[in-house]
Every structure is written in C-alpha cells, then in structure tokens.
C-alpha cells in the first residue's frame, strides 16, 4: 500500500476506539455542570407553567415603568408607553430579582411592570407584545427556587456518573501531549515511551494504540510523581515526573507547552526560575495555581512565585520547590480527579442562596453571578477542563469571553473539538486531507447505526433501485487489492472512499460500530440516512445487504399494494428519547448557525430596535424595514418567531380563510414573512421529514388507498414545515392523546403518514431553527406554492408504529396539469384557493410565476 493508504488503514483500525472515546466526551460535556443552562431550564419551566407555551426565556423581557394606564385588553389590566425605567431579560431577573421595594409590595409589580416579547426600544407595551405572565407569580417561583442548591446537586451527580470517565479522558489528554512534545523535541523517544505507560502499562511501543479497556485500568509504572503546592496551592498545576536515572519531566497541563524533559531536577528548577522571572508568564502560573487570583490564599501563592523568581540560583529554586513537593500516592489520575472534584464542589458552594439574595440585593450582582456561575466554573478557567485537554488557548476563547458567552451550545462545541483533538493525537491518527480524518472521528455516529446488528441481513435482490438516490457522478480508478479493510476500495486524494457496485460508483464510509462499509450520500458522508451496508464477496464483488422483509401479518388494509418493510432507521427514531432528540436538535442548531454566519446579516446592539405598526421588531436598512438581524449572540426575526408561536392561527387563514391572527392583517403579515424568508440562506445538505395524521387534519389515507401514486405532483398551500430531527416525527404522525400497550405516547393508524425529502432533493426550504420559539423542532419552512413529486410510496412497520412513507422531490411547478394539495390530497384549484383567502394577489404571488 502507499503511505497514504497505510495512514488511512491505521485511522480506520483505531476509529472504533475513537468513537467510543468521543461518546465519553459527549457524555461528560452533556452532564458537565453549566449554571447558565441550569438557569435557562428553570426559566423555561416557569414560562411553560404559567403560559402553557414553550417560550424562549432569552426573548422574554421584564420592564419596569414609573407610570401605567388601565386597559381591558391587556392580560395584567395595565399598559405602558415610552421607554421603561428599568429593563432586563428573564434570566437576568431570575438572578437580580425585582427591586427591593416591590418585593414587599408585590401587588404593585403588575401595575408598574410587565413581561414582554420586545426589549426597551418599543413605543408601546400592551396586549400586542405582552407575555401573559403575572409578576407576582414569577416572584413566588423565584423564592421557591434555590439555584445554588440545584447547582451543588448538579456537581454531585456529575462526579457520581463520570469520575471514571474523567480518569480515562485525562489519560487521553496526557497521551496526546506526549505525542505533541515528542514531535516538538521536548521529549526524547525513550521519555515518551516511558510516560505512555502512565496511562496504560501495556503501551510498550510507540506504535501501539490505546484501547478503552486499557485506559480504564489503574496502571502500575516505575514513574514517581510529585506536585508542587507552591504557596499552599491545592492544585496539581506543576508536577514533576521522575523517569529512569536522573531525568525528570515537568507537566504543566494548563500551559501551551505541557511537557518538557530535563536531564536533572536542577535543570528543571533553573528553567522554572527563568520562566517566573517574566511577569506575564508568572501571571499564567498564578492563574493555574489558584481558582481565584483575588482570593485570600492567592496572595501567598503570588509571593511564593515571586520568591522562586528572585532566588539567587537554580539550587535555591530547587530547594524551595522540594519544600513544597507533595508525593503522589496511588493512581496519579485518581488524584487529578479528586482535586478537580473538590474544586468544583467548593465553587458550587459559593453560589449565593435565596436568603443572601433577599438581604443583600445589589445591581452589580449579575456580574458576580456570571463570574461564579455563568460559564463552566468559578472565576477562572476550570482545572477539570484543562486536565481533559480543553485549555483556554486550545478552545480559542479567553476566560472573560467564555465566562460571559451567552451561547452555551457554542461553548460546548468548542470544548468538544478541543477534547477530540486530544483523542485524535492520542490514537496516532493522521489527517489525510481537508479535515476528512478528523471529521470521521468527530461526527456524531447516527443513533440507528450504534445500536444494531447486521446479523440476519441478506443480499438485496435489487441494489440498483435501493441505491438510486446515492449514485455518484464520478469515474473511479483501480481499487486497492491488498487484503484488509481497504480491499476493493478506491481512495480519492482527500481520503474519500468509493466502490463500484454492479459497475456503478458510490461513496462509502467505514462504520466500526457495524464493521461494514456503508453507502452514503456522496456530498455528505455523515448524513443521518437509512443504512445501506455493503460487503465484498469472495469473488471480489461488492454486494448490498438489506434487512429481512417482514414475515407474516396482514397486507395493507387498503389493498393498494404498497410494499411493506421494516426499517432499522425508524425503529430508532420512533422511540421516545429526549436526550438523543435534543442531541440531534443541537446538531441542527449548530448547522443553521454556520449557515447564517455565511450571510451578511445586520448586527444591532442589545438595547433593542424599533417596531413596525404591528409591533414587529426590525432594523432600518436604506429606508426599508429589515426583520432579520443579529442581537448580541442571537439571530432575530420577529415574523418567524411569531409564526412558530401562533402557527395554528396564521395557517388557519391559509388553509381555511379564517382570520384569527392577533398581530395585524393576515395578508400583510404573510407577505412580510414571505419577503423575509426569501432573503434567508437555504441549503439541502440533510434529509427532512414531516409527519401527518388524520386527527391533525393531515391524513395520509389517500396514499394508502391508491388515490395518489408515484409521479403525482403535490403543492403546499400553507406554511409547510419539515424537520431534520427524525425523533420529532412521531408526535405529528400519531395520536398523542393515546398511548400504546407498552405506555409509549402516540398511537398510529391507517391515516399516519411520514413524508421524506432526501438530501439534495429540495431547493426552497429555509432553516428557521435560530429564529423559532420552538428551536428543538429543527424546522425548515416551505412557502405556499412549493411543488413536490412523489418518488416512492411504501408502508413502514415496526413494533408499535406503522405509516405510509412518501418520498418526495421538489420540482418546478408545471404551467398546467393536475396537482394535489400536500396537506389534504385534494386536487388543487387556484380560483378556489384565491376565494378561500379572499385575496387574488396573495394567491397569485405563490401560484402564478
């Protein structure tokens, strides 16, 4: 094999361990105590309890005024005009609480204040922008809520679950740093080999990759370790690792250069003394040795560091270091975990309690809260994350930016990348081109690929039909003939992998979970799509495997001849699993954020922006209102937010002509929303799904009974949403007022339908997750008039679900001919549609190109 092929083969051989470690990283970060997310969840619960809606707390404002006017139309009975005297978001209010005079006169809270969807820049605060929430109820919830106690509970739960995982990932970080230091010449090869056995005593050769089983063991090595409690510090931020003979290695897990070997302890002391004579470097050591550089104990640490810097010679510096040395007894990584755990516990105990809030209210408290509470740990960058490879420099955030960042998901994504970078290096993986190797490690393995066995899968009778949507437009070179993982594979210059099956080219990726190659979309090999595993026959030909067809049972009730089949994909995503569903929704949010980041979207300050006559926030651009903009870390579009909040009302107009919209004229709103959606970025990189059910007015019976068939055209006549999170589908394709015999919410019947838009099969869908009041739904929106062709019809059946699966492709709408309403299956009539809307111009906008 060529060197490139050998590299790829090694990467694939360790990929299974890499994915297992990546899952550990995800588990640790998912449960890592983040007080900001804790406050966010509790604020969401308060809003849900009192409004019945899943509102975004970051879009709910508390405003306080010096005057009020009575009104029979508003929820509180009062309205206000002009700028408020005091404003803050709901999360900020949760910490800072209401002004002290109002705490003892709560009946006045709802007279002189209120909760609103708009910030301090609105002209009026009334029924048009209010959140139907009483301040006295919120105040009662606040006093019943002890965030400090909840955070302490978070910390205790985290360590009970992840103490062993912490040890494993700390070992991985050390292995990664060993590789980096060896390549940089700061460690000799023999030093590196000796240090690797600290993580696993069986790592006796540089080329041997660690395994998860080996990393979980407590290694016994000849290396002795001591950490220096400089100035009484209880952090193992400076550790001396003694190798054979007189050689030592200094371990600084927080530093840019983590490991460095020396011939003698005296040489190490001389180097540290020189480091500390630089004021900027000395400040770095101070930050590593104390969680809070302003705490009382920090003064002693500062003085001790200065004393080391001021010593007359290396011997004096070594004497001071040895006086503070603390030998490591037992497992070194257990010590690191214990120290990190204790530091996190102490930090949690600093959180101010409700009684302290009440007796010591001050306006600057939020700043203190954010420093103690707002990022991942108190005041400084946490030792726990440093030991897992997520140092400040590696994450690409300075401490202040991380502490004050509002995008918790973005912080965790940065931490995940940093920690996986350590996994990549520790496993000896090498990039073969354009990030493809790191992507193979870092992508979240689809859940339907994780928990399944291919035992019992058989050869496909018609692979061409099964793989039609994944045919690649590519001329393949000769495949690799060397026996092993790459046999039969054609490798591209960027490490991309391909096969020819029955003479047709397909892109593939290796799944260590299934120990098979999978046929994948050529432009998105990590897409969440149904499994298409292949194997190489003894004759050297690739063969497609398929899940065994369902046996027995009754034919479809309609007798329409739909092909019945099981689906490993839907067996997973018809489950109710909130943790996994949230994981997919977060992936969608990150994807949508990256998409929006490529577009030039206006940025405004957080103080607010003006509203139009109907109360929708916007900014002015060239004399025209622009409804899409960035506000701090958040993307805003009030028109889209209102649609997701009031979906049934505006779609009731488009579906039935009912005018129940509370935010102005329906036609004007739909036109403004459509204008805004047209300007937003679109892509088709992921498959989309949409569920329907007779009880929701979206029956799929007409597909089952043969009324609609492959090749027929469907058009959207309302604002039509799809999701890229397949876990969401069940709640729309089943009767959620009922439960199955096993207690699962959602019962399917013969009206249940699931629409599928494969990646690359649509053009006009607009991802709206970051503008939505329901971001977990990972929604993509299509305007009325979008035309789809039915590509395939089948019936999919599992243990507690069955539905008609309708595979669609977006196509140009023909000038004439018959097409059917996507929602109802009825023939579409433009004149009837215009009459329903009582507005020919609006109907023509969507259906007369």
From TrEMBL:
PROSITE patterns cross-referenced by the UniProt entry: TR_MART
Record-linked InterPro entries: ToxA_N
Dermonecrotic toxin N-terminal domain sequence ranges: 29-283
Pfam families listed in its UniProt record: ToxA_N
SUPFAM superfamilies assigned to the protein according to its UniProt record, in alphabetical order: ADP-ribosylation
Protein name: Dermonecrotic toxin N-terminal domain-containing protein
Native source species: Pseudomonas soli
């Amino acid at each position: 094999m060529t060197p490139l092929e050998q590299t790829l083969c090694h990467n694939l051989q360790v990929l299974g361990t890499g994915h297992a470690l990546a899952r550990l990283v995800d588990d640790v970060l998912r449960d890592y105590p983040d007080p900001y997310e804790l406050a966010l969840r509790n604020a969401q619960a308060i809003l849900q309890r009192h409004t019945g809606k899943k509102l975004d707390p970051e879009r709910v404002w508390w405003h306080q005024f010096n005057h009020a006017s009575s009104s029979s139309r508003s929820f509180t009975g009062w309205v206000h005009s002009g700028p408020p005297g005091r404003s803050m978001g709901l999360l900020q209010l949760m910490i800072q609480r209401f002004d002290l005079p109002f705490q003892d006169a709560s009946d006045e809270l709802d007279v002189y204040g209120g909760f609103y969807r708009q910030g301090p820049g609105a002209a009026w605060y009334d029924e048009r922008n209010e959140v139907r929430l009483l301040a006295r109820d919120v105040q009662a919830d606040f006093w019943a809520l002890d965030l400090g106690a909840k955070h302490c509970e978070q910390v205790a739960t985290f360590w009970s679950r992840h103490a062993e995982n912490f040890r494993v990932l700390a070992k991985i970080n050390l292995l990664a740093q060993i590789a980096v230091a060896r390549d940089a010449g700061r460690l000799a090869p023999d030093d590196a080999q000796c240090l690797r056995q600290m993580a696993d005593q069986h790592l006796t050769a540089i080329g041997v990759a660690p395994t998860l089983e080996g990393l979980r063991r407590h290694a016994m090595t000849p290396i002795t370790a001591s950490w220096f409690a400089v100035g009484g510090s209880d952090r193992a931020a400076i550790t001396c690792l003694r190798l054979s003979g007189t050689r030592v290695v200094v371990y600084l897990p927080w530093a840019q250069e983590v490991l460095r070997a020396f011939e003698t302890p005296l040489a190490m002391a001389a180097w540290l003394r020189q480091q500390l004579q630089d004021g900027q470097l000395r400040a770095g050591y101070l930050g590593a040795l104390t969680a809070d550089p302003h705490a009382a104990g920090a003064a002693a640490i500062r003085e001790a560091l200065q004393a080391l810097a001021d010593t007359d010679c290396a011997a004096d510096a070594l004497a001071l270091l040895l006086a503070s040395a603390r030998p490591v007894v037992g497992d070194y990584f257990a010590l690191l975990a214990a120290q990190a755990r204790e530091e996190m516990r102490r930090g949690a105990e600093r959180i101010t309690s409700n009684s302290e809030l009440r007796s010591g209210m001050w306006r600057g408290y939020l700043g203190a809260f954010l420093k103690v509470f707002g990022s991942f740990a108190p005041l400084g960058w946490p030792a726990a994350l440093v030991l897992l490879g997520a140092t400040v420099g590696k994450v690409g955030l300075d401490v202040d930016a991380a502490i004050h960042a509002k995008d918790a998901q973005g912080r965790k994504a940065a931490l995940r990348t940093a920690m996986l970078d350590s996994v990549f290096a520790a496993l000896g993986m090498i990039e073969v081109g354009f990030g493809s190797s790191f992507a193979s490690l870092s992508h979240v393995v689809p859940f339907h690929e994780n928990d399944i066995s291919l035992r019992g899968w058989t050869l496909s009778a018609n692979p061409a039909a099964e793989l039609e949507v994944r045919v690649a437009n590519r001329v393949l070179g000769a495949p690799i003939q060397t026996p092993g993982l790459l046999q039969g594979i054609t490798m591209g210059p960027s490490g991309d992998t391909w096969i020819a099956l029955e003479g047709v080219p397909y892109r593939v990726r290796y799944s260590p979970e299934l120990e098979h190659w999978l046929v994948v979309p050529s432009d998105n090999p990590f897409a969440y799509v149904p499994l298409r595993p292949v194997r190489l026959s003894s004759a050297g030909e690739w063969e497609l495997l398929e899940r065994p067809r369902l046996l027995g049972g009754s034919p479809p009730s309609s007798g329409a001849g739909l092909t019945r089949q099981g689906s490993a994909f839907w067996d997973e995503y018809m489950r109710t699993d909130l943790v996994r569903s949230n994981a997919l929704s977060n992936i969608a949010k990150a994807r949508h954020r990256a998409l929006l980041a490529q577009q030039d979207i206006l940025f405004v300050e957080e103080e607010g922006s003006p509203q139009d006559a109907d109360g929708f926030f916007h900014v002015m651009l060239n004399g025209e209102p622009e409804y899409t903009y960035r506000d701090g870390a958040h993307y805003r579009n009030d028109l889209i937010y209102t649609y997701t909040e009031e979906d049934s009302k505006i779609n009731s107009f488009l579906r039935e002509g009912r005018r129940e919209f509370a935010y102005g004229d329906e036609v004007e709103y739909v036109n403004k929303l459509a204008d805004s959606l047209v300007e937003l970025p679109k892509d088709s990189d992921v498959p989309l799904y949409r569920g329907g059910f007779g009880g929701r007015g979206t029956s799929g019976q007409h597909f089952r009974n043969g009324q609609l068939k492959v090749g027929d055209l469907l058009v959207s006549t309302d604002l039509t949403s799809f999701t890229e999170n397949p876990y969401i589908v069940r709640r729309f394709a089943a009767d959620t007022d009922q439960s199955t015999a096993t207690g699962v919410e959602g019962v399917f019947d013969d009206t249940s339908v699931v629409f599928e838009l494969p990646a690359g099969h649509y053009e006009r869908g607009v991802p709206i997750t970051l503008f939505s009041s329901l971001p977990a739904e990972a929604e993509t929106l299509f305007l009325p008039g979008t035309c789809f062709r039915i590509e395939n019809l089948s019936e999919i059946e599992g243990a507690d679900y069955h539905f008609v699966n309708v595979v669609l492709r977006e196509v140009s709408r023909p000038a004439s001919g018959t097409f059917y309403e996507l929602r109802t299956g009825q023939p579409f009539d433009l004149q009837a549609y215009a009459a329903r809307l009582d507005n020919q111009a609006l109907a023509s906008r969507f259906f007369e190109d």
